[in-house]
Amino acid sequence: MRPRTARILRTIFLAVFCAVWIAPLLYTLRVATAAPIYSQSGTPPLFTEITFENFAAVLANAEFMTALLNSLIIGVASTCLVLLIAVPAAFVCATWEFRGRQNLEAWILSTRMLPAFVVVLPYFMFFRSLQLLDTMFVLIIMHTVISLALAFFMLRSFFVDIPRETLEAAQLEGAGQIATLVRVALPQVRGGLIATGMLVFIFSWNELAFSFTLAGGAVKTGPVAILSFIAFQNVQVANLMAAANLLIAPIAILLIVAQKGLIRGLSFGAVKG
Amino acid sequence: MLAPIVVTLALLTLYPFVANVWYSVHAMDLTQPFKTGFVGLRNFQSIVVSAGFVKSLTLTVIFVVVALTLELVIGFLVALALWRPLRGSRLFTTILILPFGLTPVALALAWRLLFNPSGGGINVLLASVGLPPLDWTASQELALPSLIIVDIWQWTPFVILILLAGLVALPKEAFEAAAVEGAGFWRSVYHVALPMLRPLILVIVLFRGIDLFRTFDTFWVITAGGPGNATETLNILLYRTAFQNLNFGRAAALALVMLVIVIVVSQPIVKQLIAPRDGR
Q1: In sequence order, which residues have a C-beta less than 8 Å from that of residue A108 and are 6 or more positions away?
Q2: Which member of B102, B157, B161 has the closest CB to residue A21?
């Protein structure tokens, strides 16, 4: 096949793939911007006028907006906690060889393999006995825990790339491990740190299983609140899709900004992205 | 500097494990708070022998194997198409990150609507080309395939981007040597690229396999295990046992069985991945 023909075929193939893959997202936007009168039948005509009244209705829904605020608070708090725990550990594992390092890393990786509910059952009982169910505190802790392995391996892959000489130079000048980390290593991985933070936040924002079982009454996160929309009969699908779009909008922005880090994090540093 | 992570790990893994083992050998039916006590392996017996478990296990295996295979095949083909520079491929990768990065609940709601037998987007599309409507998630036969479609949509882009990163990083010399020997594109992909990508493919199989095994959001939002129990995978069965039947003893037993399945199945892959590396 001539290179030109091959290129045209590739372009057509990718364009078709892209169109099919983006269609569900466009569909949600179409439903969300259709007049509510169409919402009973599910699918509005493709070319009908665009209205933002569904978005206005969702923005005026205090319960949903509170849920988004909860998600924001839980996301920011758990991201800070994750970084606080994972940064020093990833730094040590990436730069110093010590006995048991491989075992420790295997242990961290193993947390990625637990089905969520293996962890949920004991914690449900534990927090129930402490009367802490349905609080922000519980979700901040659990969201910290779910992203720890991901953050560790992602940060480690950034720390490994730092030239050893700069670290050794700092040590020769008498800086301790913490000082080396804060003053020499961290400034060199600033981009990686930000990407990791964004990814951890995204994971917290998207999480359902814990938010749903350990809270969901007094404290609802975005995904839990949107599910309570469909608990009612006669769902206004246009409103539902508007809410879905509001839920994913901040994440879409973060994803596009943190594009490269996303692949690195999700592959646990195996792919530099 | 390792103390915080070690403490967190202990809380995350040791405590739930010990607690699960404890619950699994006790009567822990929250609807019968006074019937407690040691029951030995009775929880395991009642869960494993039940017809629901066998059905759930079968559904889970079908879901994991079919979705993973299709995601790898489609993902590899698209990654190949993106391999050599092409105009607009940056925009393409930006579009690709959305399905697996955006909130799964929101996307699952969109698919729930798309699959709606009366007036859902897919049936409207089928009707517009003259095809009869299908029942999708509302039918016993099509419910699981529908969920497989959603997962393929959501996660194939991830497979594409990982394989693409792997392809781009391959040394050019190997392909030049193959070209000198007269190998065409597909031959060099099969004999040169695929063997070199093997570790990366193993990573995908491991992580994707585990994620498929424990998928919850999509199932819960779109079918909640239904219709009937047509899509009741092990994870949904576990949720229902714990939080609908409130039988924590039995649920803990099921959780441990699932844990054993994950460990046993993933062990050979983990070994292969760790073996050839020297630590870094």
Answers
A1: A148, A149, A152, A153, B5, B9
A2: B157
Q: In chain A, which residues have their Cβ closer than 8 Å to the Cβ of B166? A: 271
Alpha-carbon separation of residue B129 from A38, B122, B132, B138 (angstroms): 22, 11, 9, 22
Whole-model pTM: value is 0.90
Q: B107 touching A, CB under 8 A?
A: yes
Contact present, B72 and B197 (Cβ < 8 Å): no
Residue A242 φ/ψ region, left for φ over 0, alpha for ψ in the -120 to 50 degree band, beta for the rest: alpha
Share the mean pLDDT of chain B.
87
Residues of chain B with Cβ-Cβ distance to A126 below 8 Å are 15, 19
Q: What is the mean pLDDT of residues B135-157?
A: 93
Q: What is the pLDDT of residues B234-269, one digit of tens each?
A: 999 999 988 888 888 889 999 999 989 998 998 888
Residue ranges for chain A with pLDDT beneath 50: none
Which residues, including other chains, have CB under 8 Å from residue B200's CB and lie 6 or more apart?
A270, A271, B162, B163, B166
Upper half-sphere CA count for residue A231 (Cβ side, 13 Å): 5
* Tokens at B260, concatenated: 């054993």
CA Rg, chain A, in Å? 23
> What is the model's pLDDT at position A37?
64
B38 three-class SS:
strand
Q: What are the pLDDT digits (tens) for A82-100?
A: 999 999 999 999 888 888 8
Report yes or no: B15 and A122 within 8 Å, Cβ to Cβ.
yes
Angstroms from A208 CA to nearest CA on chain B = 7
- The whole-number pLDDT of residue B3 equals 86
> How buried is A226 (Cβ within 10 angstroms: 0-12 exposed, 13-18 middle, 19+ buried)?
buried
**Position B207 confidence tier, pLDDT thresholds 50, 70, 90:** confident
Q: B216 vs A65, B60, B225, CA distance in Å?
A: 25, 12, 10
| Residue in B153, B214, B259 nearest the CB of A21 | B153
Q: Which pLDDT value is given to residue B277?
A: 46
A14's tokens: 């990718």
The shortest C-alpha distance from B85 to chain A (Å) reads: 10
pLDDT on residue A244: 93
List of chain A residues whose C-beta atoms are within 8 Å of the C-beta of residue B256: 118
ipTM of model over 0.85: yes
B158 close contact with A: CB closer than 8 A:
yes
DSSP letter at B247? B
Q: What is the C-alpha separation between A199 and A215, in angstroms, rounded?
A: 23
Residues of B in contact with A7 (CB under 8 A): 86
**For residue B108, what are the β-bridge partners?**
none
In the prediction, which pLDDT does B279 show? 44
CA-closest candidate to residue A223, choices A239, A252, A247: A247
Mean pLDDT (whole number) for B25-37:
78
Task: Say if CB A150 and CB A199 are below 8 A apart.
Answer: yes
* Beta carbons of B20 and A160 less than 8 Å apart: no
